[in-house]
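Ticket #338: bound-state structure for zinc ion.
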Amino acid sequence: MKKQTIILAMLLALLLLAACGQHEHQWEDATCTEPETCSVCGETRGEALGHRWRSAGCDEPETCARCGETRGEAPGHDWQDATCTEPETCARCGETRGEAPGHDWQDATCTEPETCARCGETRGEALGHEAVPADYWTASVCSRCGEELAPKLTPDFVTYGLDAHFIEQGKTYDYKTRCYEDESYSTVGKATVTRYDVTPGDGETLEIRDGYSWRIVTFEVVFDDDNAYNFGMSPSITREDYYDIRRHDDTLDYDEETGLDSFDVVYKGETYRCYSFLENDYAGWSDHSNTWTCTFYIQLPDDYDGMVVGLRNRSIVWPDDAYIFDLDNSDTLFFRLN
Ligand SMILES: [Zn+2]
Ligand SMILES: [Zn+2]
Ligand SMILES: [Zn+2]
Ligand SMILES: [Zn+2]
Ligand SMILES: [Zn+2]
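RESOLUTION: The complex was predicted; output attached.
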């Protein structure tokens, strides 16, 4: 190299050094991690900006809003189980996946409307029970669910504490009633059930009707005490319904032409018009004794077990509007026809 050339090169280097000492900085904007920096000389001023972290979403980690740098991991969705009406849903971001399964409807019952087995939501109305009312023979039971809604009704004879024997042929009872000529005297006869028959009828005095049968009950009452002998005797009978005392009396009618009593019996949901008549006679006095024979003929529904016949003490006054349970029945003999 020529000496001149070397000198020139050194001059240039000196010039360059001098220029550097006095250049204008070319500042580049600060970034998240670098302060403002001169692009010529690398000098910096101020501070780096620092990242502006945006909180993580379910499927992206924390991310710098400025430079896009990330840190950590995406947490993933926080899936909540599907409900009947909502699909699986992220508790954090609300994103869903899949389908809502819909309600799992269970049929309505007597007491509950249609109900979702999963969430308990209901729709419509309970069906309500299906039952006929209780009567004296059958409780009210729902035909759908079998629940007993009401017990059997209590027979009036039980309600009013009236004591009825089932009729028993051949058995003898003391029967007290007043004397005929002087009611201040009473007599006690021996009452025996001498006949109890059940028959469809004879087509003559005992009319035959489908679903009915005649009950024939005969009492023979022997009066042989002194009061009966001296003052006569005055027996009194009654006919009652074991189950429904009022219905029997309230529907009672007497037909003078036929001589028949008629009355209603309601048996297992059906109403029956029933007929009845009475025959009675005295044998006449013989050897200080007289026998009164009394026969009830009563046409009743087949199998009906609620008819009661009774022998009453006639000294117990029976006012027109009174029922048997209004009276003093301490002397009454009640016989229930089974
Ligand atoms: Zn610079
Ligand atoms: Zn950044
Ligand atoms: Zn999510
Ligand atoms: Zn549901
Ligand atoms: Zn029911």
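RESOLUTION NOTES: The CA atoms of residues 193 and 219 lie 5 Å apart.
TICKET STATUS: resolved
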